[in-house]
Amino acid sequence: MSYDWIIDVLFWVAVVFLVGVYVSWRATRLDRLHVRVETARAALDAALVRRAAVALELAASRLLDPATSLVLATAAHEARTADAERREFAESDLSRALRAVVDQPGFAAAFAGRADGAETLEELAAAAAKVVYARSFYNDAVAAARAARRRLLIRVLPLAGRAPLPGFFEIDVEPPRF
Predict the structure, then answer these.
(1) Which of 3, 25, 78, 117 has the fewest CB atoms within 10 Å, counting from its CB?
(2) Which of 142, 1, 128, 161 is nearest to 58 (CA)?
């Protein structure tokens, strides 16, 4: 009796098993990348909200002239209330408004003597730096997820499911110079 057919069956079972393990690994990796994008987006949103809150605090602190306070408060309010379509533009406007405020002659000197002013400036500097880092982490996560979704296996087998293709978050993030 010849048992060659058993070896053939075991070989094909092993091949199917290994292909299944690989496909499962790729699907799990893609899922983790999408979770990473969502987590990075939540961190970016938190950093943006914090920056807008500190900008509103600065505008309401009575440490700025009324016109500058109004411009800064308007930009911060627009950034906090913008819908998804206008969010990048509103956040860029807030970045430019913050730079315009900080770049005013004598700005830092006016705040140096006041305890609450120096504290607000430190908070603003920290919030602006966090936005830069959070945007960088988010865009890196998006790039990794998009690269994974371009792979042939992911496209042939719908391993991404119905998850939308993540998009980059492009804003003017040059922090103000204190």
Answers:
(1) 3
(2) 128
Q: Which residues of 88-124 are buried (b: 16+ CB within 10 A; e: fewer)?
A: bebbbbbbebbeebbeeeebeeebeeeeebeebbebb
Q: What letter represents residue 61's amino acid? A: S
Which has the closest alpha carbon to 138: 41, 51, 48? 41
pLDDT digits (tens, 9 = 90+) for 120-136: 888 888 999 999 999 99
Q: Which two tokens stand for residue 35?
A: 């979770």
The ranges assigned to domains in the chain are: 4-156
Provide the whole-model pTM. Answer: 0.84
Instruction: For domain 4-156, give the CATH number.
Output: 1.20.1440
Q: Which two tokens stand for residue 172?
A: 């003017």
Interior angle at CA 160, CA 156 and CA 161, nearest 5 = 100
